[in-house]
Amino acid sequence: MYKIVLLRHGESTWNKENRFTGWTDVDLSEKGIVEAHDAGKLLKESGFTFDLAYISVLKRAIRTLWIALDEMDLMWIPQVRSWRLNERHYGALQGLNKAETAQEYGDAQVKLWRRSYSTQPPALLKTDDRWPGHDPRYADVPEDDLPLTECLKDTVARFIPYWEETIAPSLKASRKVIVVAHGNSIRALVKYLDGISDDDIVDLNIPTGIPLVYELDEHLKPISHTYLGDPEAAARAAAAVANQAKAT
Ligand SMILES: O=C(O)[C@@H](CO)OP(=O)(O)O
């Protein structure tokens, strides 16, 4: 049996301001820093240890990992960054307030943009400063792979090859792995691992800063998954994420 821990970063400054974030590189809020410390303490108290970490190239995930590893006295472990673990790119919605966007376009449209499997938010133009082609951290990524917007299906398409080619072989080599990523990139992985349908994935929300532990069989098929800590608190936090973009 294999085990892997998936962790969404702690609350970011734009989570706090209720803005669509995507690939915008915002930092953790004060609450997010506390959540990252708590995640590390909880992992340590629960007997977890790691010898390899995978993270996105966004600082809210990187800092969450650093803080959690510091709590576990594991800052020495290899930390492998990939853009493929980034948050789903939110296209032209990046920066907008979620509730105001729902007032303008309606709750149903915003829910489609946030949670449907295959509806892309409005796209950026390549001339827009928010297009990742202007950011040196993506200089080695082929231009055709850099999104102008993404639906969850697009995030699955760029994350799962990385799972198959890089993360899964590490697990099979008995590495103790933590993945620190984002609400929608973790939804992409969970959809794939648990075989969740395109319709049912709409109702899955991932809370910030609560470790999600998967036990996997020898073929890396899930045997179980659980949030560490208080399950009701995790359910409440997930419901709060779902409700972030209501117009009223
Ligand atoms: O703004 C975002 O990038 C994500 C995660 O913070 O938001 P949502 O939960 O609305 O998909």
Automatic annotation (TrEMBL):
* Annotated InterPro entries: His_Pase_superF_clade-1, His_PPase_superfam, PG/BPGM_mutase_AS, Phosphogly_mut1
Q: Which positions, given as ranges, span the membrane?
A: none
Biological process according to GO: gluconeogenesis; glycolytic process
Reactions catalysed, semicolon-separated, are: (2R)-2-phosphoglycerate = (2R)-3-phosphoglycerate
Write down the Pfam families for this protein, in alphabetical order: His_Phos_1
Q: Mind telling me which CDD domains this protein's record contains?
A: HP_PGM_like
The family assignment reads: Belongs to the phosphoglycerate mutase family. BPG-dependent PGAM subfamily.
Name used for this protein in its record: 2,3-bisphosphoglycerate-dependent phosphoglycerate mutase
Q: Which organism is it from?
A: Candidatus Cryosericum septentrionale
What gene makes this protein? gpmA
